[in-house]
Amino acid sequence: MVDTCKLSSVWDLSEVKRVVDERSAACVLDAGYTEDFRTSNTKIVLGLSTCACALVAQFYPKPFPENYWVLVVCVTAYFLLNTVLQAFLHFRERDIILTTWPKAVSCSSAPHTPVS
User: Fold this and answer.
1) pLDDT of 20-31, one tens digit each?
2) Can you give the pTM of this predicted structure?
3) With 0-12 CB in 10 A as exposed, 13-18 as middle and 19+ as buried, what is 10?
4) Residue 100 belongs to what H/E stretch?
């Protein structure tokens, strides 16, 4: 995996971190591990659910006094889903850049731990 890295500026720390994270993940995947997408999929589902609540609240076909309870439910659901998403990011994802499944274990080898 000899590849030229695409850095626009070596003084941009977030760009350097992004390149290091991408290269590290590529090295782990090249070592034979397969990526576990459950964390990414959970974030996507929570984010889309939050956006759906906002869209229903914005584009519900009735005018304001008639859709009061729909707005209350949508705003409450938006708040709760966004809170769950932020808690998931803080407690589950943390600074993990890649989560993998363990390699297949044969009878004669020691068990491998997942790399994350």
Assistant:
1) 888 888 888 888
2) 0.71
3) exposed
4) strand 100-101
